[in-house]
Amino acid sequence: MKKIIMALFLVVLIAGTGWAADEAVSAPSPESGSQAVIEESGGDKSMEAPVTESVNEEPMKGTVTEPSSKEPVAETAQEPVAPTAAMEPEEPKHGFGHKLLFYIPNRLLDVFDFARLRLRVGPGIAVGARATKLVEVFVGGYASVFVGLPGPRLEPVVKLPVGIENYSGISVSVADGTSEGKRGPGYSNTEFGAGFQLALLGIDIGLDPMEILDLATGFIFIDLRGDDL
């Protein structure tokens, strides 16, 4: 009887041990259960770190950012440079060699500059007198040819003793209403003289003290009138 009971106890013990092993194999572990839940739900999104995109992030200090090609580039317009006196070309000044070469021609021209003696032929009626530009009067008009001393040159040119002379209008002192152009008598502001035109004949005489002084200083290479060649 004891042998039967011991045999049954061993059978029950062996069967219980096998059943426990089967339960251990078949029972899911906590880790496998959580893995199954994750697989079924497509992954535990709550565990994932949220990914955020930075908007308008400032560049780090020390980095060089390239300008966007879409941004318009400001164009700086260059302002025109106003011309200055230093930029203007200066008139060439004659050297001593040039003055020495034209010394005699310039002195001869200065001799004829201080006097005016013109005989005119042409239609017109006019009368005038002058004692410098401040005391001057002229009225009338004429168109003529002249012969004689042309009077002051006033610039570095050579005046011929014959030419055309046209002059018309009214002039009283500095109030000058005359029209002469390039064919006028070319009176200087320091000239004294008088003249008239009657029908076809006329005469004009004058003397310029400034030209006498210009002749005197010309001998020592001083050109007061600025008319030396």
What does this structure look like?
It is a single chain. The chain has a five-stranded antiparallel beta sheet with strand order 4-3-2-1-5. α4 (103-113) runs antiparallel to α5. With 229 residues, the protein is of the alpha+beta class. The protein has a domain at 115-209. The chain contains five helices and five strands, in the order ααααβββββα. The protein is rod-shaped and about 190 Å long. Residues 19-65 and 71-75 have low confidence and may be disordered.
What is the element layout, followed by pairings?
Layout: H1 2-26, H2 30-41, H3 96-101, H4 103-113, E1 115-131, E2 135-150, E3 162-172, E4 175-179, E5 192-207, H5 209-218
Antiparallel strand pairs: 1-2, 1-5, 2-3, 3-4
Helix pairs in contact: 4-5
- Would you list the SSEs in sequence order as H and E? HHHHEEEEEH
- How many distinct beta strands? 5
Helix content: 25-40%
Unreliable stretches:
19-65, 71-75
Distance between the termini: 167 Å
Structural class: alpha+beta
> Helix segment count?
5
What kind of assembly state do the chains in view correspond to?
Answer: single chain
Average pLDDT reading = 75
Sheet-strand content, in percent, reads 25-35%
Main β-sheet, spatial strand arrangement: 4-3-2-1-5
**Rg value:** 60 Å
Summarize the biggest pleated sheet: 5 strands, antiparallel
The shape, in one word, is: rod-shaped
